[in-house]
Amino acid sequence: MDERQQNTNTQERTGASEEQSVRDQDIPEGAVEIPVEIVGEEEQKPAENQGSEEQAEDKEEHKPSYEELEQETENLRKAMDALRKATDEEVRDIRLRNLAEIENFKKRLNREHGEHLKYAAENVMKDLIPSLDNLELAITYGSKDEACKGLLQGVEMTRKLLLDAVAKHGLERVGKEGDAFDPALHEAIGTESREDLPPDSIARVMQGGYSLQGRIIRPAKVMVNKR
Q1: What tens digit of pLDDT does each residue of 22-62 get?
Q2: Which of 18, 57, 153, 203 is most buried, by the most CB atoms less than 10 A from its CB?
Q3: C-alpha–C-alpha distance, residues 217 and 225, integer Å
């Protein structure tokens, strides 16, 4: 019995010595041994619960109030009203532009129709002008012969009636001796010198011109007075 106890004591002393030796080898000189405390799951749970409670409190702190929600609703309503107003104004502008374009189109059609009616007889008038020229030449050269005086009266009456008829459709004769020369109405084919007329005036009309509704369809061929 004493031997067993002695062996046990010897083994305990040997194990303690070996453990002390290992500790002496692992721990460097001057190091301080710090006790390590192992935290169990029971101690960690309160910390986790505390973190969850703090997050819940933060959420409660950021929860918007009734006044904030009401203000946000008012802001959204104003934004919708502004958008609706802008849309209505845009639709109104488009409508007004379309109406203006339609009105301009109507005016253009009326103007073109009026011009068409105004100058519809232009081709007919151009065909009648040579006849007027021939009647005028007959009067000019026939007046030099006494035997043609009776005939000339009939020619002059015919010419006058024809001029009156075409005048109702807007055809007028252009070019007369003594008128100031106008390049827009007259075509100069030469010059003459006449003391009884001012300079740059029409000295003689070689061929009469005609205008239809104020638009020249044939300029008058004239001689310009140069002194």
Answers
A1: 454 544 554 445 444 544 445 444 545 555 555 555 555 56
A2: 203
A3: 24
Please return the burial class of 64, using the count of CB atoms within 10 Å of its CB with bins 0-12, 13-18 and 19+.
Answer: exposed
- Where do runs of H (alpha helix) occur along the chain? 2-26, 41-62, 66-118, 122-142, 149-167
Instruction: Find all residues with CB under 8 Å of 180, minimum gap 6, and list them.
Output: 198, 200, 201, 202
Q: Tokens at residue 55, please?
A: 């997050």
Asked if residue 149 lies in contact with residue 139, where contact means CB atoms within 8 angstroms, the answer is no
pTM: 0.50
Q: Which residues pair with 207 in a beta bridge?
A: 221
Reported as a pLDDT band with limits 50, 70 and 90, residue 122 is confident
Could you give phi then psi for residue 176, rounded to 5 degrees? -150, 145
Burial of 168 (0-12, 13-18, 19+ CB in 10 A): exposed
The C-alpha atoms of residue 30 and residue 61 are separated, in whole angstroms, by: 52
What pLDDT score does 44 carry? Answer: 47
pLDDT digit string, tens, across residues 190-216: 999 988 899 999 999 999 999 998 889
